[in-house]
């Protein structure tokens, strides 16, 4: 959905690929900035950082790694259970946020395609 969203902003594929790649790499920055203060962040802040799909994937992988280190692994019965007692974020929440990300990206793509249809189309007034 991210690529669909990015594609509606550009007419040339080469420019779209460069910009989308750059934005894709930038979407990991919130996770990297949150790492040093991760334990002091609230669940609301962690969830809001999951709006960007790369950050959400990183938080999810972090939770899975914690479960593996504890030799529990990720099982269906603890999908919504945090890895540790002091952890609030769980894999179920991360996957929910990834679905929300997909819906946001898809909504933006459809909206921009209707408002700026490109060379062959009539723009809608909204």
From TrEMBL:
Write out the entry's keywords from A to Z. ATP-binding, Membrane, Nucleotide-binding, Transmembrane, Transmembrane helix
The protein's matches in InterPro entries, at most eight in alphabetical order, are given as: ABCA
Q: Which GO terms describe its molecular function?
A: ABC-type transporter activity; ATP binding; lipid transporter activity
Q: Which domain of life is it from?
A: Eukaryota
TM ranges are 15-35, 89-112
State the GO CC annotations.
Answer: membrane
> What is the designated name of this protein?
ATP-binding cassette sub-family A member 3
Q: What is the lineage of its organism?
A: Eukaryota, Metazoa, Ecdysozoa, Arthropoda, Hexapoda
